Amino acid sequence: MSIALRNHFEKIIPLTDQEFEYIFSHFTIKKLKKYQFLIQGGDNVTNDYFVVKGLLKAYHVDKEGKEYIMQFAMEDWWVTDYQAYFSQTKATLNVDCIEEVEVLGLSLQNRDKICAELPKIEHFFRLKCNMGYVALQRRILSFLKSNAKERYEQLMLQYPNLFQRVPKTLIASYLGVSRETLSRITL
Fold this sequence. Notes:
Layout: H1 2-10, H2 17-24, E1 27-32, E2 37-39, E3 47-53, E4 56-61, E5 67-73, E6 78-79, H3 82-87, E7 94-97, E8 101-107, H4 108-117, H5 119-145, H6 148-158, H7 162-165, H8 168-175, H9 179-185
Antiparallel strand pairs: 1-8, 2-7, 3-6, 3-8, 4-5, 4-7
Helix pairs in contact: 4-5, 8-9
């Protein structure tokens, strides 16, 4: 587990063995089974999670029970309910496992601590946040200016292996279309 996290950090910043051991000591390990919740709406959100193994989905369920998938999270990605994590409030999103999952959790308190002590870690998280904002902007713009077929094709180009791991009903929900519409555009 630690190797995956170290490789992830070192894509952006170099770390000594001592620095990485110190950083890793602030994470907690969690293993979950398929369909198990990592975060459930109404929970206190204490951690941001780095995905070591498996696949999760972050989603909101409206009053009518309709599910809106905000994000899939696979190996080498981070996932949580960021609004609740940063404001230390109750979750408005659910995050559950599409596959068996192994994650490393980092509390906000520990994140703030290692960022204050190691400026390069603060730099790492700043860059990760920037990349997240860019990805979110691209996703919103795709809903505003692209049709369902174009959104599907864009998703296939960006994440081709996602389609072998995620049922079409979940892909449809992520794209904001019905399962039937997705079937028509993928013919």
